[in-house]
Amino acid sequence: MRIARFACSFLLAVGILTIPAQSRAQAAVGVSIRVGPPVLPVYAQPICPGSGYIWIPGYWAYGPDGYFWVPGTWAEPPEVGLLWTPGYWGWQADSYVWHAGYWGPEVGFYGGINYGFGYTGVGFFGGHWRGSTYFYNRAVTNINVSVVHNTYNTTVINNSTTINRVSFNGGQGGVNARPTSREIASEHQRHITMTAEQNQHQQAASTNRTFLASVNHGRPDVAASVRPGQFDAHGVAETAKPGASNRPASSQPSNATPVNPALEQKHQQQLDQLKQQQGQERYRVEQKHQQEQQKLQQHAADDRKQQDAQHKQQQQIQQLEQKHAQQQQKLQQKQQQERQKQQKPVKPPSPSRPPHDDKPAA
Questions:
Q1: b/e map 146-182, b = 16+ CB within 10 Å
Q2: Which string of DSSP letters, residue by residue, matches 106-149?
Q3: Phi and psi (nearest 5°) for 23?
């Protein structure tokens, strides 16, 4: 009996290993969760380290201790001509199942999730290949044009069907998106799973407790990095969150002059006020979008008009987020200058000369 069970298990393992890599890349990973992942954090994209790198957006993965954030990063494709299709969580059979990302000649279906930076929910608009050279769209990617010259500038019309940062497809509150005919066709193309560098990047994130959603409450300190696995180096991007300012990973040296508590309190109030204003502005924009959608539905507008309206709304939200990120960055730069100015040692006053009595002695 034991021999029979062993033989069945062996044959099953061999069968799984003989599934083509193309099919395995599209199959859902055997992890199913009853609770959906947190929303996607808002962050600025680190500058591209050089020509040939492709942006891999951050995502929520799942481990023994629950969901953990895998920071977005720049990675080199395994072959020339390949693009990255991000993974996504999808509601399936009363649970959330992870569909792994993969490399392929075209970007396929990734749940309609708006990961940003060219991944609008349908397709990819952050760059494309021309022969053996990858060109970057400056409109949605952070490129130093003095280093990377193969660029272009095209305004991106967002194709996502949601106006929030939901990170899963289907289920209660999830993105309601289905694959297009082109995305279905791309599933049958040759795929390559994550590179060794990407796997190491995810593994490094899984061992860092600060990335656990139960620890960071859905707002990881480091949301993105310039290169895979570099979470404490220069060039990391922190999540925009209330109650704390975005600061570079390298903190002040221990021998730095202590900051003025009154100045820090003033800076915090300025940041809180700015974020409150930004939140109100975003709320007004989303309310306006909701009213527009309701009018279209009441007038029985066709799918084309509703889709065009959603595209326009998503583009406005993306532009609003970029505007808010720039506002916060400018405020933080100004505050940092104030800190540096306050920490400069004050020059002692020059000694005053004693008064001279020019009158002759009596």
A1: eebeebeeeebebbbbbbebbbbbbbeebbebebeee
A2: S----TT---BTTB-SSS--SEEEETTEEEEETTTS---TTT--
A3: -70, -40
Residue 211 DSSP label: G
List, for residues 314-324, the tens digit of each pLDDT value.
778 778 777 87
Closest listed residue to residue 200, CA positions, set 18, 54, 71: 71
Q: Cα 260 to chain center, whole Å? A: 33
Instruction: Provide the residue count of the chain.
Output: 362
CB atoms within 10 A of CB 24: 15
CA distance 62 to 25: 18
For residue 201, what is the enclosing H or E element? helix 196-206
Give me 203's structure tokens. 């593994």
Place of tokens 């704390």: 244
Cα gap 27→17, rounded to integer Å: 13
Q: What are phi and psi of 7, to 5 degrees?
A: -65, -40
Write out pLDDT tens, residues 225-276.
999 988 876 666 677 644 333 332 333 333 333 456 677 678 777 876 777 7
Long-range contacts of 286-292 (CB under 8 A, 24+ apart): 286/163, 286/164, 286/317, 289/163, 289/313, 289/316, 289/317
What pTM was estimated for this model as a whole? 0.59
